[in-house]
């Protein structure tokens, strides 16, 4: 144990011109189809220099190598989170958190405590409440006024699509009983007074009055989220929607050597600005490019959410037959997609409804036809529901399907309203991960944190235990979190597999996932996370199961 600790200390300190690091006795799952399993590997100069058996690793390593002997623990390529919001999640961690408060009384008490503790900010902000905690009537501004009476207060649900605000916040936004109706402003049916609950676009009426985070706050947020990511074995993230100030904060963090993950940033597209905005995208992309962080992706929102009837559907909602959701006309969307594609951007589209899926595929097909063959790697994210006719098009067009497997859980409270909105026939095609894979489509996985758990092991378990025909195998979902997720952000020549020449971005688990019950995967723990061969996370509790010599 002492020898192992010493080896890891040396590793952390970067002692010597990086002597070799040797891991033996493990279950090394390489994600290399030609050689999927090994028992040992050697890290040299930040890269994987040898993959094979124990004796071969010892013979290959230099004499001063640091040796870690595993006892069957599993070694994987570092996990990729292919759709996450690190900066905004980190900002939430700096605010009032209500995650452990489940009742109205507990939530009010937690807000009072936060209001008393944090007196520096002009606004009290937080997240974590759920409408279910308040009963059918939902929360009221009076309750929030009592808990935070002296300054504006703004609290979001975990998914970010609903906000609860107090009277001071409503007043700053000019929202009162006399104001015009907005479908996102909840009102008392008798008095027409706003209740304090805002949804969807109405949230922006208040958010525009909240002071913008400073670069220091963004940097602090990023430090928190990268540390948490590393603790879950995540070594690469795709920031699915970053503003210009966030991109500046990423650049500053990179220059200060604070990033312990690789980051690919998606710049948010505003359809109203048309193709001209791509000039700004190019300038930001060229300014931030480095080995650890890039901003060469673009994010489109093609629709909203199924259970809120804001997803774009091919046919009206089963429980709201007067609507089928919003629409982005092809003559607005396609010119922007063509320009971004011509400039080499990775294109990432939020699609929940089957019409949004089709619109996205049509736009990507149009760009490919206009610009000719190139290395595109586009992806549609979430794919809440897809029409069967569009499922083969993912493989045909080379479009990856980006899923959030934690959403597959049968106990997810959002699934009941989603199924009610879709009706029985369309509910068969909710998040069709297995169907797309069976037609040759590439699958990648992410968390959409902070909306759901950041831990890839939670997502992996949800994918392999899902009810019904869309369950996938362990090998498939591991590839979605490693090899295929690396491919979709053009990192496949850098990481995503355990092969000679790849960066030593690795995660060690305390057990072999292939040898435990699928329902026990969430109990697995990360022992060690390496980025470029250096430790960015170590779990001392589990180091006792390993020895060194």
Task: Give the gist of this structure.
By secondary structure, the chain is of the alpha/beta class. Helices cover 33% and strands 21% of the residues. Strand 18, helix 12 and strand 19 form a beta-alpha-beta unit.
Query: What proportion of the residues is helical, as a percent range?
Result: 25-40%
The total beta strand count reads 24
Q: How much of the residues is beta strand, in percent? A: 15-25%
Radius of gyration: 24 Å
Taking the sheet with the most strands, its summary is: 8 strands, parallel
The average pLDDT score comes to: 92
- What spatial order of strands do you see in the largest sheet? 8-15-16-17-18-19-20-21
Distance between the termini: 9 Å
Given the C-alpha coordinates, what overall shape results?
globular
Commentary on this structure:
By secondary structure, the chain is α/β, with parallel strands linked by helices. Helices cover 33% and strands 21% of the residues. An eight-stranded parallel sheet has the order 8-15-16-17-18-19-20-21. It has a six-stranded mixed sheet with strand order 3-2-7-22-23-24, with helices on both faces. The chain is globular and about 80 Å long. Residues 1-10 and 12-16 have low confidence and may be disordered.
Question: What key attributes describe this structure?
Answer:
alpha/beta, 24 strands, eight-stranded parallel beta sheet
Give the helix/strand layout:
Elements: H1 2-13, E1 21-24, E2 27-29, E3 37-38, E4 40-44, E5 47-52, H2 54-60, E6 66-69, E7 74-77, E8 79-84, H3 86-93, E9 96-97, H4 104-117, E10 124-127, H5 141-147, E11 153-156, E12 162-165, H6 167-173, E13 185-187, E14 194-199, H7 203-207, H8 215-231, E15 234-242, H9 244-255, E16 262-268, H10 278-288, E17 293-301, H11 330-342, E18 346-351, H12 354-371, E19 379-382, H13 391-397, E20 400-403, H14 415-422, H15 424-427, H16 433-438, E21 443-445, H17 456-464, H18 474-481, H19 483-488, E22 506-509, E23 526-531, E24 534-538, H20 540-543
Helix pairs in contact: 3-8, 4-5, 8-9, 11-12, 17-18
């Amino acid at each position: 144990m002492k020898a192992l600790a010493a080896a890891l200390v040396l590793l952390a300190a970067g002692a010597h011109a990086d002597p070799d690091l040797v891991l033996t006795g493990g279950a090394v799952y390489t994600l290399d189809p030609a050689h999927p399993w090994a028992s040992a590997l050697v890290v040299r100069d930040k890269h994987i220099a040898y993959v094979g058996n124990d004796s071969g690793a010892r013979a290959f390593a230099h004499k001063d190598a640091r040796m870690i002997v595993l006892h069957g623990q599993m070694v994987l390529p570092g996990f990729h989170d292919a759709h996450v919001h690190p900066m905004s999640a980190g900002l939430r961690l700096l605010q009032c958190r209500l995650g452990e408060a489940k009742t109205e009384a507990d939530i009010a008490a937690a807000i009072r405590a936060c209001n008393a503790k944090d007196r520096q900010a002009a606004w009290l902000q937080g997240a974590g409440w759920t409408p279910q905690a308040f009963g059918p009537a939902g929360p009221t501004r009076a309750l929030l006024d009592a808990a935070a009476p002296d300054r504006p207060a703004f609290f979001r649900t975990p998914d970010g699509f609903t906000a609860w605000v107090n009277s001071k916040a409503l007043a700053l936004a000019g929202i009162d009983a006399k104001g015009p109706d907005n479908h996102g402003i909840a009102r008392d049916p008798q008095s027409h007074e706003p209740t304090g609950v805002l949804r969807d676009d109405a949230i922006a009426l208040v958010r525009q009055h909240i002071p913008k985070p400073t670069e220091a706050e963004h940097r602090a947020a990023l430090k928190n989220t990268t540390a948490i990511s590393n603790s879950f074995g995540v070594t690469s993230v795709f920031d699915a929607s970053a503003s210009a100030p966030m991109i500046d904060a990423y650049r500053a963090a990179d220059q200060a050597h604070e990033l312990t993950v690789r980051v690919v940033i998606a710049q948010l597209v505003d359809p109203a600005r048309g193709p001209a905005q791509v000039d700004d995208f190019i300038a930001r992309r060229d300014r931030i490019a480095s080995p650890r962080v890039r901003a060469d992706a673009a994010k489109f929102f093609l629709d909203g959410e199924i259970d809120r009837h804001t997803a774009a559907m091919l046919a009206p909602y089963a429980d709201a037959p007067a609507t089928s959701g919003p629409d982005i006309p092809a003559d607005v969307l396609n010119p922007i997609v063509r320009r971004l594609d011509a400039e080499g951007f990775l294109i990432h589209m939020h699609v929940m409804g089957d019409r949004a899926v089709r619109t996205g595929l049509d736009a990507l097909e149009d760009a490919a036809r206009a610009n000719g063959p190139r290395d595109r790697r586009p992806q549609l994210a979430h794919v809440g529901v897809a029409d069967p006719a569009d499922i083969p098009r993912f493989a045909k067009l080379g479009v990856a399907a980006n899923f959030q497997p934690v959403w597959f859980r049968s106990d997810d409270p959002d699934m009941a309203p989603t199924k009610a909105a879709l009706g029985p026939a369309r509910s068969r095609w909710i998040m069709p991960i297995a169907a797309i894979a069976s037609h040759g489509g590439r699958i990648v996985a992410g968390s959409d944190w902070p909306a759901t758990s950041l831990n890839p092991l939670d997502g992996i378990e949800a994918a392999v235990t899902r009810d019904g025909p869309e369950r996938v195998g362990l090998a498939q979902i591991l590839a979605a979190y490693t090899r295929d997720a690396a491919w979709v952000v053009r990192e496949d020549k850098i990481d995503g597999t355990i092969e000679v020449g790849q960066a030593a971005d690795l995660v060690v688990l305390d057990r072999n996932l292939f040898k435990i019950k699928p329902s026990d995967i969430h109990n697995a723990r990360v022992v060690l996370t390496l980025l470029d061969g250096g430790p960015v996370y170590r779990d001392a509790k589990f180091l006792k199961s390993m020895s060194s010599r």
